[in-house]
Amino acid sequence: MTFVTNLECIECGETYEKEGIHYLCSNCGGNLEVNYDYSAAAEEWHRYEAKKGNELSIWRYAPLLPVKPIQFGGLNVGWTPLIESVRLKELLGMPNLSLKDDSKNPTASLKDRATAIALARSLENGAEVITCASTGNAASSLAGLGASIGATVKIFVPENASRAKVAQMLLYGAEVFKVKGSYDDAFDLCIKATEKFGWYNRSSGFNPYLSEGKKTVAYEICEQLMWNPPDAIIVPVGDGCIIGGVHKGLKDLIEIGVISEMPRLIAVQADGANSIVKAFDSGDEIGTTAGNTIADGIAVGRPREGVKALRAVNETNGYALSVSDEEILEAVRTLTETAGVFVEPSAAATLAGLNKMLNSSLLSKSDRVVLLLTGHGLKAPEAAIGDLKTMTIEPDISDVEKVLEG
Ligand SMILES: *Cc1c(COP(=O)(O)O)cnc(C)c1O
Ligand SMILES: [Zn+2]
Predict the structure, then answer these.
(1) Where does the pLDDT of residue 384 fall: very low under 50, low under 70, confident under 90, or very high at 90 and above?
(2) Among positive and negative, which fits the CA dihedral 246, 334, 104, 164?
(3) Domains along the chain?
């Protein structure tokens, strides 16, 4: 049993019953959000508090999740580390900086949180096939957790999806359609396939349950900080589903009285895929860009959950900014060299964003800031390595000596 009451369109307010499969609002095409009976959920949350200690996964927050917990053959989704890197703090002069390392999930990205909920939901609905469109991580996550429970997974990715992510999908045994075109093309085709073949769809910005998984990262950040939420959380943004989920999670915690202060949510996009930043700056509707960046996880031309993302930023007195590919690559190197934390470019964009915020005094060095690190560096090494080279030598000690002498 769950405490879900219904689903509600975030744009026109139309409601939908919790049973059955709903994606976008049939009235206006807006994204749907899952509602709860918060007073009942709060009671269960506090009753459950005592026994959740051993549950080192997203299921420790079962009272505020929309599905009954399922197991993934021993793979634990969530409860990832909050890293305190002394060296990075010193380098930046920020004593209160923390890194939420979601690359430690089973398929090495934050997307596992959403996949876990979507797979549980697809089982509840008796779906035989589950599909998604993805720049890479959502698909490798669906393929991986799907493999652990024997689900049939079919995936749509853009032609230029990272080799490592495609390797994951194929090895996990999913059927992969590489679409000649962009992520946005893959997305539209995946929806057509869902309609035509009756598959269950786990695409971001389409399936309302994904935010319910992604929000658990906000619960964890707050719990790991002893329920004393940070001043700001910096989130890399493509479709906007993660930052919308983080916002939902924080609102949930305020609703049940576990925290009282709302952190500022800072959205970081890439310069070449900055639709949400443009809308934040201009106040106009969210438009389309080329979606061009080496950070493939945020290479989104037409954000599908942009309204939620903007709301997350605006309602928390947050901010939205974009960073260049060069700044992202530099941030990858800083995180690896200084903290020993190897994340993919999309995740490192958060550090590039932090630097810019500090330079323009939009954040202060004493602020308690969390960078949300969304995916592992080995998922996109070609993009990150830049012009770094190894030296090649003969297997001879005198060659080593020559190099050491310079
Ligand atoms: C998906 C993803 C993002 C962006 O998430 P959205 O929900 O599309 O905004 C950021 N970083 C990584 C590593 C991702 O896989
Ligand atoms: Zn609507």
Answers:
(1) confident
(2) positive
(3) 82-106+211-385 (3.40.50.1100)
